[in-house]
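Exam revision sheet. Question 4 asks you to relate a sequence to its structure. Input first:
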Amino acid sequence: MSKMNVLGTEISYYQHEEDDYISLTDMVKNIENGLALIEKWLRNKNTIEFLGIWEEIYNPDFNSPEFEGIKNLAGLNRFVTEADILNMALFGIIAADWRDKNPDKKGNIRDYADISQLVCLSNLENLNALFIDEGLSQMERLLKLNKTAIHQMKLLTDDAQVKKLGTKK
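Answer key, structure tokens:
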């Protein structure tokens, strides 16, 4: 990796074939809260969409389905409660937004969950407590919980025994 000096700041760059890549963290290392600025930029939905398009064009191994889940979570830093994190991970929406979109329904989003979603939600609650003990940030927990929810819902919705539980009154 080579270095260049820009206005007194040493910035690393890498050249691969005819393309140049620069270090974003080097660019902001002399700016107060520079890393937080990069984090904020990376959480922006437009940034995520741009990066996804770039990956689709240039990365033959790009995992589009997994990226869609990440893209859907981008820009959603407005949730603050653990219930919101769990709802986002499983349902892709926080309770307040669900209520706004469903003013005619009584109760909350979980009242309309099926048996598979309720089983998954219970598992996510346990995992979230573990992740909190491990010191993971809200965003790290959300991403891990969402990935787990996707995996578990695939398993649960394909399970004949779980389907039988859902049909009993």
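Marking note for examiners. The longest helix spans residues 138-158.
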